[in-house]
Amino acid sequence: MAEPRVPGSRESSVSLPCGERIDVRDLDMGMREFACSCGDDHAIVVDVHPPGRFVPEALVSLLRETIDTESGEQFGTIHLMGMVAEEFPEEVVSKDVSENGSVGYALVWVAEFDARRLHEVVVELIVELMDHAISHADNDEAISSFEQQMLEFDVSEFVTQYRRERDFQGPADGPV
Ligand SMILES: [Zn+2]
């Protein structure tokens, strides 16, 4: 991650990759992106957003069954955003606000790019993760079936459809 988690930090302002600063107390858990004074929209994710924000729950369950996390906890939004921050260290900042009790979440990530681009990045990383997991599977049939499906999988089209079909303000996307 671009910024190490500092336990005990009560500082609530964050420097964004674009050079602007924001106060996390101005962010809302329901926000998916915000219009920055630099002129761009930046994607926002907080740790209480369920991974279902990005992919169907069935796939989330599959990921949870397949992926062993280092900490042993359930695979979730924190791991997804960790992958995004690792892939785009210059474009993603994270902030530990766990000491800042008023905001309702413990970790927030802000990306240089907008929420739609972030969604595509997350889906691409999940596809890579699954591809990697499947390639270690001792099952040639599963590997070739997965690879076949991936050949036909269009990330951009999936994201467009998912964002259209899901009500992002609905209870399924609310904090858990
Ligand atoms: Zn900006």
User: CA-to-CA gap between the ends?
Assistant: 24 Å
% residues in beta strands: 5-15%
Structural classification: alpha+beta
Identify the overall geometry.
globular
Number of strands: 6
Order of helices and strands: EEEEHHEEHHH
Strand order of the largest sheet: 3-4-6-5
Give helix % range: 25-40%
Write down the domain tally: 1
Largest sheet: 4 strands, antiparallel
| Distinct small-molecule ligands in the complex | zinc ion
What is the fold's blueprint, element by element?
Blueprint: E1 13-15, E2 21-23, E3 33-35, E4 41-46, H1 57-66, H2 77-87, E5 92-96, E6 107-111, H3 115-135, H4 140-151, H5 155-165
Antiparallel strand pairs: 1-2, 3-4, 4-6, 5-6
Helix pairs in contact: 2-3, 3-4, 3-5
The protein binds zinc ion.
Residues 16, 18, 20, 36, 38, 40, 42 line the site of zinc ion (ZN).
What would your notes on this structure say?
This protein is an alpha+beta fold and 176 residues long. The protein has one domain (13-167). Helix content is 37%, strand content 14%. The protein has 5 helices and 6 strands; from the N terminus they run E-E-E-E-H-H-E-E-H-H-H. The chain has helices spanning 57-66, 77-87, 115-135, 140-151, 155-165; strands at 13-15, 21-23, 33-35, 41-46, 92-96, 107-111. It has a 4-stranded antiparallel beta sheet, with helices on one face. A two-stranded antiparallel sheet has the order 1-2. Strand 1 (13-15) and strand 2 (21-23) form a beta hairpin. Helix 2 crosses helix 3 and helix 3 crosses helix 5 (155-165). The radius of gyration is 17 Å and the shape is globular.
